[in-house]
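Show me a record, fold above all:
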Amino acid sequence: MHIITAIITAPGPGGGKIRCSIKRVCYSVVRQATDFFLTGKKKAGRSMNIYQELKARGFIYQETDSAAIEKNLNTGNVTFYVGFDPTGNSLHVGHLLPVMAMRLLQKAGHIPVVLVGGATAQIGDPSGRSTARNMLSKEMVAENAECLRQQLARFITLENGKAHFVNNNDWFKDLQLLDFLRDIGSRFSVNRMLAQESVKQRLENGLSYLEFSYSLLQGYDFYHLNKTLNCTMELGGQDQWGNMVAGTELIRRMSDERCEVHCLTIPLLMNPATGQKFGKSIGGASVWLDVERTSVFDYYQFWRNSDDGMVEELLCKFALDIPVEEAHELVQSGNINRAKEILAYEATKLAHGEAEAAKAYVQAGIKFGFADPENKVATTSSIRNVSADSAVELPTVNFTADRFEGEGMWIAQLIVECGLAKSTSDARRLVQGNAVSIDGEKITDVKYTLTSANVKAKFLLKTGKKNFKQVVIA
């Protein structure tokens, strides 16, 4: 319990002064005041408007006009776009920041335009790269675009006019080169393009004209979407700023009347533990949304193994059903592993659905242990409704009941037959090392025998934290 004492001095009768003290005993007030005055951040609450929520969750890095963007987002339904180049047949975790921002904006009533760069992917964006991308065939790009559409549909609603899904190849494929250079190229300054960070970083190693022209194509995308869908805002990563501003300038130069358009970039998310862009596993491999490349369990575990120092930020950005203030409270709860479980569950729920998230949570809990089996940490996450004994597919070994009659089965023999040790000698060492348990109860007697009198029809046999089998006796 904290106490605030405020001393108020005011004029009194006859010119004297009155001093009084006011004491408030209120933990929540103290914490909000501390957040505001010491860190410069107001505690984000449910009454935030959408712009304030984007800011509180850390989605805003650069913006053309913050006041105008906030006003537009709070006074009407803004059509905005995010571009994705289909250079592969799956998104990975590193792609998800703008997807999360897009989801937030759509839930607030705004209309996303998902642009798949069927044309620009054939060139390759030089932003954030030290070398040129591999060239892809038109057929491969089209196939990748359809895969991305299916994956993005998990995060935003594409039906009933709530979003648009477009492919820039539809308007670039019939565009004549001379017409494009005359009408669009004449409105771009080469000096301005050379000043872009994405270009300057590549000039030393070499930059082809093909890649250099990418900024013109991305700018034209914004112009086309503004003209056809009244799209007035573009979202993208911070390394896209130069290309995005080029689009706003092109629209103003091409419009007969004043046209208000804006762009907003999202900060890059770096993993302090690896120094790499967030989205890579410990081994450096990308974590994919495609279950053929990254299983749901591995996807869950990627989030579950997040660096402690990133958990609050990741909750804010990738667990959008968790209020901002709750993300702070979870990290401050004293049980950081429960916060990680909630992060992993919520992130997996968005990418793969609630049923798959629950299954991964239970499987991980059985394998490695649950951080908060009694649900002591308060949360609004639906993880609180998932019980540890939920039915999931576990690696199972079946035995007939007669194997446990009479003298029964020696624990070391059971371990070997379940494939958890190569020999009974290895199994004995596991027991002696206090590494064996049945339904959470340690087995320390190397002579322990399972019989029909002490064995259940189904139980979980574990050797260490990572190896386990479900044993079923029928």
